Automatic annotation (TrEMBL):
Keywords: DNA damage. This is Methylated-DNA-[protein]-cysteine S-methyltransferase DNA binding domain-containing protein. The keyword Protein biosynthesis does not apply. PANTHER family: 6-O-METHYLGUANINE DNA METHYLTRANSFERASE, ALKYLTRANSFERASE-LIKE PROTEIN 1. InterPro entries: ATL_DNA_repair, MethylDNA_cys_MeTrfase_DNA-bd, MethylDNA_cys_MeTrfase_DNAb, WH-like_DNA-bd_sf. Pfam families: DNA_binding_1. Residues 41-123 form the Methylated-DNA-[protein]-cysteine S-methyltransferase DNA binding domain. The keyword DNA damage applies.
DNA sequence: AGGTGGGCTATCC
DNA sequence: AGGATAGCCCACC
């Protein structure tokens, strides 16, 4: 498919759905500095494609958008995500490539809320002794090839990339 | 201009 | 299986 076409539609979706109140002045600079390549709206669009009971990584979201080195910015976009964003963004389905839920540092409860949200939809989260939370990517991972999903298009779930493969 | 730190990662021990 | 270490790219001192 034409990546350019997908990009156009992506920005359309952005205008339509991007209702996040961006009151932090740094965000605007953030987006413009990226040359509108990786925007919050695109991140949210892709995250919305993650099927229920599946997870993917920050880095893979970045790859699907076409900016493989922007994993940390995906994290930023999710960090600034407003809870009232419509349609909802299943932010909890994005974890580290290791399968770990990022802790966000001591004194924060984000990781625990993420664990609860994952468990609420039937994803098993293993908690280690140090409090580290991990998800089995072989079982729950969703890592479609870039280009195999219509970024920004009206995602038809049934396409092809629905599940990760074998491997051991 | 240089340092640090982010909801990150791939790669080597 | 964990760490240490580069890279990474931008925001913020």
């Amino acid at each position: 498919m034409q990546p350019s076409a997908g990009r156009v539609v992506a920005s359309l979706c952005e205008e339509k759905f991007e209702t996040t109140p961006i009151n932090n002045p740094s965000i605007g600079a953030f987006e413009s500095a990226l040359g509108a390549q990786l925007t919050h709206g695109k991140v949210y669009d892709v995250v919305r494609m993650i099927p229920a009971q599946h997870v993917t990584s920050y880095g893979h979201i970045a790859k699907l958008i076409g900016q493989p080195n922007y994993s940390r910015h995906v994290g930023q976009a999710l960090k600034f995500l407003s809870p009232n964003t419509t349609p909802p963004v299943p932010w909890h389905r994005v974890i580290a490539s290791s399968g770990a839920i990022s802790s966000r540092g001591p004194g924060t409860d984000g990781a625990q809320r993420q664990q609860e949200a994952l468990e609420a939809e039937g994803i098993e989260v293993m908690v280690g002794r140090g409090g580290e939370r991990k998800v089995d990517l072989r079982e729950y991972g969703w890592f479609p090839e870039p280009g195999s999903v219509a970024v920004g298009l009206f995602a038809q779930e049934g396409s092809d990339a629905d599940h990760i493969e074998e491997n051991n």
